[in-house]
Amino acid sequence: MRRFSGINLAALAFGLAFLYLPILLVVIFSFNASKLVTVWGGFSLHWYGVLFSNPAYLEAALHSLQIAVAAATLATLLGTLGALALTRLGRFPGRQLFGGLMLAPMVLPEVILGVSALMLFVALDLERGLLTVALAHATFGTAFALVIIQSKLVSLDPNLEAAARDLGAGPVSAFLLVTVPSLLPALVASWLLAFTLSLDDVVIASFVNGPGATTLPVRVYSAVRLGVSPEINAISTIMLALVSLCVIVASLLHKRTLVASR
Q1: Among 69, 114, 186, 203, which residue carries the largest CB count within 10 Å?
Q2: Per-residue b/e over 232-257, b at no fewer than 16 CB within 10 Å?
Q3: CA 255, CA 262: separation in Å to the nearest integer?
Q4: Which candidate, 237, 219, 235, places its Cα nearest to that of 56?
Q5: Where are the domains of the chain?
Q6: Which residues of the chain have pLDDT under 50?
Q7: How far apart are CA 235 and CA 216, in angstroms?
């Protein structure tokens, strides 16, 4: 077993500090009593109280939650349908093109996704608002859901569903009673990951949102451009806790899915 040398430990410590020290400072200074974000004035929950009494931030947070729930639900549904097509329909014409198009949002820059979504909504004469942001977020959330659900579908035994149909269940009933329970951990993990991606997005939302549909990350970004306030630290800490919880749960469920498939 190799032991860490002093250089390796120093490099590891530097890397962890570079990645997580700024986040830790944001969390610490969210409990700062001082109005100056870089000067410690004692422990206080004052800025959390100020945050929850600010209607603009509360409205933006509500918009973000509504959009994230809708986008995650739609992304999970589309990801499931796409995974079923890629695993159950065999080598149909255009299969590789279809799979590539489904996975393209994972690798495309968010600026391109935002501009293309904006052009689509303008061409369709669709008024920008909560709906357009949710649809745009579902676009790239579907790609991540597809990867997770497809990895689980590949490992499922198709004979189980066939046996249910032999016992009298219809195609829909066999799918709902046999396949869906087996896919449940992957479905939940996909939903949580798509929810997290939507909740955290700034670039795409800034292109496709409209009046009265500002999300919390976009509002935070607009506020930071005018200077960092202690409220921003409090918002960042709350979002960090929520996103971290969703990512941890999704990772555990996905790991459980991979272990069960072996």
Answers
A1: 186
A2: bbbbbbbbeebeeebbeebeebbeeb
A3: 11
A4: 219
A5: 47-261
A6: 1
A7: 9
The token pair that represents 30 in the structure block = 């969210």
Q: What is the pLDDT of residue 78?
A: 92
Digit-coded pLDDT (tens) for 12-59:
888 888 888 888 888 888 888 777 767 777 787 878 887 888 888 888
Structure tokens at 250: 């999704």
| Token representation of residue 176 | 């709902």
Pairwise CA distance, residues 185 & 149, whole Å: 9
> How far is residue 72's CA from residue 81's CA, in Å, rounded to a whole number?
14
Output the pLDDT for position 1. 47
Tens digit of pLDDT for each residue in 221-235?
887 777 777 778 888
pLDDT of residue 70: 94
And the tokens for 144?
A: 């991540």
> What is the model's pLDDT at position 88?
76
The per-residue DSSP string of the chain comes to -PPPPHHHHHHHHHHHHHHHHHHHHHHHHTTB-SSSTTS---B--HHHHHHHT-HHHHHHHHHHHHHHHHHHHHHHHHHHHHHHHHHHS-S-TTHHHHHHHHHHHHHS-HHHHHHHHHHHHHHTTPPPSHHHHHHHHHHHHHHHHHHHHHHHHHHS-HHHHHHHHHTT--HHHHIIIIIHHHHHHHHHHHHHHHHHHHHH--HHHHHH--TT---HHHHHHHHHTT---HHHHHHHHHHHHHHHHHHHHHHHHHHHHHHHH-
